[in-house]
Specification:
Helix content of chain C: 55-70%
Number of helices of chain C: 9
Largest sheet of chain A: 6 strands, mixed
Structural class of chain A: alpha/beta
Strand content of chain C: under 5%
Order of helices and strands of chain C: HHHHHHHHH
Distance between the termini of chain C: 5 Å
Largest interface: A-B, 67 and 67 residues
Oligomer: heterotetramer
Radius of gyration of chain A: 19 Å
Strand order of the largest sheet of chain A: 1-2-4-3-5-6
Number of strands of chain A: 12
Structural class of chain C: mainly alpha
Number of strands of chain C: 0
Helix content of chain A: 25-40%
Bound molecules: adenosine-5'-diphosphate, magnesium ion
Amino acid sequence: MREYLVKTNNAVEAVIQGLQATSPFPIERVGSHFGVTYRGNSARKAKLLTGGGSGHEPLFLGAVGPGMADGAIAGEIFAAPNPDSILAVTEALQPCEGMIYLYGNYSGDVLNFGFAAEEARAKGIKVEEIRVHDDVASAASDAATERRGIAGDIFVLKCVAAAADRGDSFSDVLGLGEKASAWTRSLGVALRAAASIDTGQPMFELPVGEIEIGMGLHGEMGVQRSTFEPVETLVPRMLDLILADFESTGLSLDRAAVMVNGLGSTTVLELLAVAGHTKITLEKNGIQRPLFRTGQFATSLDMAGFSITLTKLDDELENLLNADAHSFAYSTLRP
Amino acid sequence: MREYLVKTNNAVEAVIQGLQATSPFPIERVGSHFGVTYRGNSARKAKLLTGGGSGHEPLFLGAVGPGMADGAIAGEIFAAPNPDSILAVTEALQPCEGMIYLYGNYSGDVLNFGFAAEEARAKGIKVEEIRVHDDVASAASDAATERRGIAGDIFVLKCVAAAADRGDSFSDVLGLGEKASAWTRSLGVALRAAASIDTGQPMFELPVGEIEIGMGLHGEMGVQRSTFEPVETLVPRMLDLILADFESTGLSLDRAAVMVNGLGSTTVLELLAVAGHTKITLEKNGIQRPLFRTGQFATSLDMAGFSITLTKLDDELENLLNADAHSFAYSTLRP
Amino acid sequence: MEKNLESLNPSQVKDLLAKTLSSWIAERDRLNELDRALGDGDHGTTISRGAQAAIDSLQTGNFSSVNQVFAAVGRAMMTSMGGASGMLFGLFFRSAEKIPVSEVLDLGTLNALFDRGLEDLRARTKAQPGDKTMFDALIPALTSLRESQGDLIAALDQAASSATEGAQKSAELIPKFGRAKTLGERARGTPDPGATSVAIFFTGLAANAKALSPQS
Amino acid sequence: MEKNLESLNPSQVKDLLAKTLSSWIAERDRLNELDRALGDGDHGTTISRGAQAAIDSLQTGNFSSVNQVFAAVGRAMMTSMGGASGMLFGLFFRSAEKIPVSEVLDLGTLNALFDRGLEDLRARTKAQPGDKTMFDALIPALTSLRESQGDLIAALDQAASSATEGAQKSAELIPKFGRAKTLGERARGTPDPGATSVAIFFTGLAANAKALSPQS
Ligand SMILES: Nc1ncnc2c1ncn2[C@@H]1O[C@H](COP(=O)(O)OP(=O)(O)O)[C@@H](O)[C@H]1O
Ligand SMILES: Nc1ncnc2c1ncn2[C@@H]1O[C@H](COP(=O)(O)OP(=O)(O)O)[C@@H](O)[C@H]1O
Ligand SMILES: [Mg+2]
Ligand SMILES: [Mg+2]
Ligand SMILES: [Mg+2]
Ligand SMILES: [Mg+2]
């Protein structure tokens, strides 16, 4: 049993108010929709709209900002946004050469963004979609585009945004996004179910002492249920699965951007432990790590657990990831 | 019952490894101590060493970096660091004109840092101490220097570091630190006890549905136990206590740096809700908020709850807080 | 003696739907429980939110055609629910806008309306009967409705039992779509929440239509 | 018939302390439990860590004086424990370095040693008896030891019962120092963990000294 400081009926409102309160740059709300825009990325030919269900804070609304998304749209907790709201944010970002909808690959999101994209096109707005599908646990590598999107959303979004900022054409930005998406793989593990914001009860069954490798961001089942395991063996086991997946798809990995992401109530202490063991394992595999981020980027309410994301880097993606960016969800750090 | 990915016997090691893995700038470990240094802040006359017990990640080890601390030293979980280790980091940072030990005001820290300071002085090293005492719940305002230090550590440290970076003399840096400390007030609330990393059991009794306003960072008792309350009323109640404390000490508050800090397993969603209501209440009180940060800066393992910190600003403190800084625990954001 | 119910006017349809939608609200916890085993535990919350929004929109709306009544329900659900089910249930009802306007609801109109709804859903998801989705209840229900020879009440009764049977049978299926799709064998034993919602809908529709029916 | 125990050599002191320290490890859970009510729940963990480090350091060390034995314990505790108790317990023993070197431990040396320890503690904390800290057991114990007329065993027995009584009585006090100080009335009923550790120490010291004592 867990009480939340907000209830289902005011949670998303509260997120928007909070973002506006804490943001050093202006974030505009779109009507009464759960949508926001940042208007400062003026050099872009392609504008970027991201979104998804709530409960994943700082995603998705927190991803707008300089060098990041131009617009974001949230649904209720763990529910994709509705098409009217997606369309409203789309229209608020006009005029532009074209819009890219970037979101995690879930039934609900595909249905709603897809519907909104059609309605936008009917209004003469050019829209293309990038569906992030980084979760290696959710489908075999020969069906990679059916995978779910998890924390990989952020690196892909960051690359796309930076490509748009350097003035790339709409189709170049889109192509870059497909590349970044194809080069991004993640795997998560759940240590304890999130508590429902409605009832305070666990949202799925995961007995104490068991873990689920490959658990999705909403508690979707993963690939392996096993007994509790400390970081020393858990992290190498997870990375092996990710590395094997790169290999099986013919992507040789010698340099990667790394994200260690907390799912909600895993402590920063533990995330650092995961980071340390991730470094050791990648080092053993001869993989360079010029960009390594540890924190809470894509959560699942108060689920305990974490995910590890690797984006294969070439010089282009490394430069794009290093380009300046600021948002509540993700900012570039300068050494 | 909660299992941690690390155990007491490897937790702090894991934190150090993780920091080194994820840091974009070099962090050096000091011998086999739980201590680290960053050597890049070369313009400083006063060097800055911070520290305290572990379990508060990203503090304290995560506070080293450009524009932040030069050295940090951790103890075991919820135990102040020992004097040998404090001294070892002190010596690793020599030569310098003088050292400032900056830490939260707890018996254990006062005893150990105080002892180390004496030993350092005996070796000819100049050392002064700044004990942050921002927690208004922990003593009356006429005994403010007896208060505990909580998340306020970070704003005070940031100001001191920036003063050192602009080349201030040792005594000016120290004076600035005293001012920043005197102008910083916080209040926390616990919604659920942290689980012991040893036993997995709650570290103190807090029945479901009750909250404790003024709970310290280790579960020290606060000022008011009451039934669960949503943000809408809880945040104004907490801010009223903080604002009354500023007033009672004759500090008029028209401009403040604000930090909304998660204690461990309070979700980012909830922290944003706290941020939103903090803004509303401060606005009602006519208080400007040029700097407003929301996140996890000073935690208490996986305790659920949050703290709100206000630092009264004048132009000097505002400039110091806005100066560039990077560390795992805190970085300056540019709009 | 019972008189057969042959058709309803928009205002009757509005009452019929409002009553029927409220059973989703009543079944909220059970639907959440099913989704807790197969998905993210919110199907009951989501569909009740949709039902409430639809009821609100029925209460404030003025409807001159049956199509408008169904479309109002669909729009309200699509907008208020979001998620997979918001789009699917929403579209199913909202498609009523796309068929010829009718001022009465009889079995023929109902079939035309639901068939168009199904067609629009099929354009958006590749799920087939057997894939453990709402289709496992919806398709049998629509088939019954289409093949029924009796009056509206009898046809709805038939549809309700087909939907209920379909939802029950979905328990034994392995999911191929939606959040449940990675569960595999672990999904056996629990009926699909979406299919269960379809069964609840048709069961309510039949029962409430009976209550409307001019009885002795 | 018992022979009086008058003095111990460094190697006997080493054994005596090692055995005594191990009772902190044995009482770890109880001490944590007390600290859970008054502080942060870790006093047992912390002091056992110190005890283990001290035992390890006794086992590897070579000691030519009693002072060295006590100081080794103090250094190991101070370094391995950290926290308030690491400094206070550590310093208490480590102060042995500061008094004249002695090759045997008799009651006089013990008093000199502990009195110096107490003096050094008092320079670091303003806590007084009645403030619900380790002093509530330590000061009565040292007073007994100082006032005792008997042999070492009898003196230690006296000290042990004074410490135990002091620790028990601390339950009724309101804390003025350490993490417990904001608890106020809520602290009543639980003995101070640090004081309890002091009682455990003196109780162990008396019992283990008896076992060393050359008996018939
Ligand atoms: N791609 C799909 N095709 C058909 N039905 C689907 C699809 N995805 C989900 N569903 C239906 O939606 C139901 C889940 O609804 P709900 O829990 O409200 O949405 P969400 O999965 O977004 O949380 C499933 O039980 C299933 O019947
Ligand atoms: N300032 C102080 N003066 C005297 N004794 C103290 C002081 N602070 C703490 N103590 C003692 O330390 C004990 C707590 O020890 P421990 O739990 O190991 O340390 P911490 O409080 O750092 O977690 C208290 O029960 C008390 O006896
Ligand atoms: Mg959902
Ligand atoms: Mg402690
Ligand atoms: Mg669901
Ligand atoms: Mg303690």
